[in-house]
Amino acid sequence: EVRLVESGGGLVEPGGSLRLSCSASGFTVNNQWLHWVRRAPGKGLEWVSRINDNGDFTSYADSVKGRFTISRDNAKSTLYLQMNSLRVEDTAVYFCARGSALFDNWGQGTVVTVSS
Amino acid sequence: EIVLTQSPGRMSLSPGERATLSCRASQSVSSSYLAWYQQEHGRSPRLLLYGAVSRAPGIPDRFRGSWSGTDFTLTITRVEPEDSAVYHCQYYGSSPLYSFGQGTKLEIK
After folding, report:
1. Helix (H, G, I), strand (E, B) or coil at A46
2. How far is Cα A95 from Cα B100, in angstroms, rounded to an integer?
3. Looking at beta carbons, which residues of chain A come within 8 Å of B92?
């Protein structure tokens, strides 16, 4: 069974940092692209970032470029999202997801709240 | 830049009724890269359809997809109480890489 389990969310002040993790199991992790997708309160889904199977290619949404960094450790089957210079508008549930053109499996999400 | 516009924003139906959800792209897109997801309250999204019309594994055949030009449709032929959820369409393109509609909330009375 494919499992993606996020952790690391919490409450942080504007300008602060957080590091999210996503532990993957049930599939060959180093064969898959992985993503972060978020959903802010009352809004639709928003793709945040992606990383290729071996970690040497990444892409970001314009809204997070220069502030967020995606990475992965295939030996630990874990995906990361380092979030710096957080803004109130980054408040959302953050999901990790598997796939290339679409997302066929999702984690349960971790909540990030940016507030003073 | 491709923008996906979903309508209606919310709808309320009784069990057994037919649900028709729309996702309109702002410009010509390939149906091969259009997907639909279901997100129940407090849960993670679940892939329903890919390539606009193909059901993901385990998805009941009452969920059907179609398209005409830039208009994509998700039809639930006979809604059931467990279909109460937000439905999202998504496109994989070049600008932006991945775009989502704003979602349609379906309530089953």
Report:
1. strand
2. 14
3. 101-102
Mean pLDDT of A106-111: 98
Burial of B32 (0-12, 13-18, 19+ CB in 10 A): exposed
User: What stretches of B8-84 adopt beta strand conformation (E)?
Assistant: 10-13, 19-25, 34-39, 46-50, 54-55, 63-68, 71-76
Nearest-angstrom CA–CA distance, A92 and A112: 6
**Is pLDDT at B17 greater than 80 in this prediction?**
yes
C-alpha dist (Å) from residue A68 to A92, B78, B100? 14, 43, 20
Confidence of residue B30 (pLDDT cuts 50, 70, 90): very high
Instruction: Give the integer Cα–Cα distance in Å for A17 and A12.
Output: 7
Would you say A97 and A41 are in contact if contact means Cβ atoms under 8 Å apart?
Answer: no
With CB atoms and an 8 Å threshold, state whether A45 touches B99: no
Number of CB pairs < 8 Å for A and B?
56
Contact A44 B88 (CB under 8 A): yes
Q: What is the mean pLDDT of chain B?
A: 95
User: Per residue in A48-78, pLDDT tens?
Assistant: 999 999 999 999 999 999 999 999 999 999 9
A57 touches chain B (CB under 8 A): no
Cα(B44)–Cα(B53) distance, rounded to whole angstroms? 22
Q: Please give the mean pLDDT across all residues of chain A.
A: 96
